[in-house]
Design goal:
A hairpin with an 8-residue loop joins strand 13 and strand 14. 41% of the residues lie in helices and 14% in strands. The chain is built from 14 helices and 14 strands. The N and C termini lie far apart (67 Å). Helix 1 packs antiparallel against helix 10 and helix 12 packs across helix 13. The chain has two domains: 243 residues, 3-Layer(aba) Sandwich (Aspartate Aminotransferase, domain 2); 123 residues, Alpha-Beta Complex (Aspartate Aminotransferase, domain 1). It is an alpha/beta fold and 399 residues long. The chain has a seven-stranded mixed sheet, sandwiched between helices. Strands 11-14-13 form a three-stranded antiparallel sheet, with helices on one face. Its cofactor is pyridoxal 5'-phosphate. Belongs to the class-V pyridoxal-phosphate-dependent aminotransferase family. It holds the Pfam family Aminotran_5.
Length: 399
């Protein structure tokens, strides 16, 4: 028998970055310490209590009383898939709003699940009006409507007021992507009539990637329980997963225990801060960052009335090397920002202000470093052109 030689690798020692990209966001020491606590079994009574806590706190963050509110044991993309495959059956018609990468992704997932997919489209960075959604809904007469609340590829925030009422008037169902919006701006699941919503742990929840909170209305849960065909995915079949998260505590899969510890700590911090205070913090710091970015001559891709505060997408100036600037920010200043996706690749920087990465220090540090990088690219930028306006806005807002 021949045994392959073990590889020689360096010790694990990742750098401490300032994470200001589209995710993951920075996490607190409290979250890291929680994840280092001793493991218990995934059916241990202590862990079952933690599961109950996480469900209760997620209901608060989602602003819902939905019983079926859990963190899926996978990343946000699995949350998207869970919402689609549990509700969609072969031939069901779904209308999906596409104004960025993640609307397109939702359409792809729905098509793979056997849905008849119809799309309504807008230029990237724009949002859909209630009238536009109403017209498409009445024209196509689908069973489901899918919208991205916070489009991570463009920084656009989709208004949802009135849409749930529109959809429910025809006995339809509203599915919402809240991956980037949850805990950074209001996500009012019950008030807005959202039937299925998904998010990710690594954005404004300020927890490492690996969990996907979802919530289903009772109407949506009834669709799941009355299906005539099996859910396309065994792993994401919530009729079985809820046997583990519900009263029976029946084994379905081995939950990521340490990740749920981290989520517990992150959600506790949100509860202690309070949702309204947290939303206001993200909005205030966005206004400060926006003042600084505009002072540096950068233009936003989304209209001011519909910007996602925690994801700031700005156009890269002509003559500036996208990759070079992001590399210099990382190497010289230890700051990560994101590049563009899809149609915006090489054209946009995506700057995150999420959770623990949403603070005065991060805003002022980034603006100073970005000024340096832009000057290095030959841009005519005045001294303090970004930091000055941001500081003035901070003083004006009293933060």
């Amino acid at each position: 028998m021949s045994i392959q030689q073990a590889p020689q690798v360096k010790s694990l020692n990742p750098p401490r970055r300032v994470l200001m990209g589209p995710g993951p966001s920075d996490v607190s020491d409290r979250v890291r310490e929680a994840m280092a606590k001793p493991l218990v079994g995934h059916l241990d009574p202590e862990f079952l209590s933690i599961m109950d806590d996480n469900q209760s706190m997620l209901r608060y963050v989602f602003q819902t009383n939905n019983e079926l509110t859990i963190p899926i044991s996978a990343t946000g993309s699995a949350g998207m898939e869970a919402c689609i495959v549990n509700l969609i059956q072969e031939g069901d018609k779904i209308l999906i709003g596409v104004n960025g990468v993640f609307g397109k992704r939702m359409a792809d997932v729905a098509e793979r699940a056997g849905a008849e997919v119809v799309t309504i489209e807008k230029p990237w960075g724009e949002v859909f009006s209630l009238a536009e959604v109403k017209n498409a809904w009445q024209t196509h007469k689908p069973k489901f409507l899918g919208l991205v609340h916070g489009e991570t590829s463009t920084g656009a925030l989709q208004p949802l007021d009135g849409i749930g009422e529109l959809v429910h008037g025809d006995d339809g169902f509203l599915i919402v992507d809240a991956v980037t919006s949850l805990a950074g701006v209001p996500v009012m699941v019950d008030e807005w009539g959202i039937d299925a919503v998904y998010s990710g742990s690594q954005k404004c929840l300020s927890c490492p990637p690996g969990l996907a909170p979802v919530s289903f209305s009772q109407r949506a849960a009834d669709v799941l329980s009355s299906r005539k065909s099996k859910v396309q995915s065994w792993y994401l079949d919530l009729s079985m997963v809820m046997g583990y998260w519900g009263g029976e505590r029946a084994y379905h899969h081995t939950a990521p225990v340490s990740m749920n510890y981290g989520l517990h700590a992150a959600l506790q911090q949100i509860c202690e801060e309070g949702l309204e205070t947290r939303w206001q913090r993200h909005d205030n710091l966005h206004r400060c960052l926006a003042a600084g970015l505009e002072g540096l001559g950068l233009q936003f891709m989304a209209d001011k009335a519909h910007r996602l505060p925690q994801l700031n997408a700005v156009a890269i100036p002509d003559g500036v090397d996208d990759a070079k600037v992001r590399r210099r920010l990382l190497q010289d200043f230890n700051i990560e920002i994101g590049g563009g996706l899809g149609a915006f690749k090489g054209k946009v920087w995506r700057i995150g202000l999420m959770g623990d990465a949403c603070g005065k220090n991060q805003v002022l540090t980034l603006l100073g470093a970005l000024e340096y990088c832009l000057k290095g690219e030959g841009q005519k930028v005045g001294a303090g052109a970004g930091v000055g306006p941001a500081s003035d806005m901070m003083l004006e807002l009293g933060i």
